[in-house]
Design brief:
- The two termini are 22 Å apart.
- The chain has one domain (2-84): 2-Layer Sandwich (Alpha-Beta Plaits).
- By secondary structure, the chain is an alpha+beta fold.
- It has helices at 15-25, 57-67, 78-84; strands spanning 2-10, 29-38, 41-49, 71-77.
Length: 87
């Protein structure tokens, strides 16, 4: 199973490191990541593999929000993401 993580906010040093290390602490494997910096804004979409994750998806979201200040972070199961974007 996979999940999608989106991160948006003002650019600062260490965003990718904080998000990826929080995922690693939960044993969630980052399989794909894309990021952009648009002037002062940072945007990232990350795909994670949850097969060996050691916590629930809701707990991962809480950890991410605690560890990455000032960013808007969404964590969504792949099935929900796909359902939302199906025409």
């Amino acid at each position: 199973m996979r999940a999608v993580i989106t991160v948006i906010g003002k650019d600062m040093v260490g965003i990718l490191a904080k998000v990826s290390s929080t995922c690693a602490d939960a044993n969630a494997n980052v399989t794909e990541v894309t990021q952009s910096v648009l002037q002062d804004f940072f945007a990232m979409i990350m795909l994670i593999d949850m097969d060996k994750m050691t916590c629930e998806l809701s707990e991962l979201k809480e950890r991410l929000n605690r560890n990455v200040d000032g960013m808007t972070i969404h964590v969504m199961h792949e099935d929900i993401f796909n359902s939302m974007h199906r025409i």
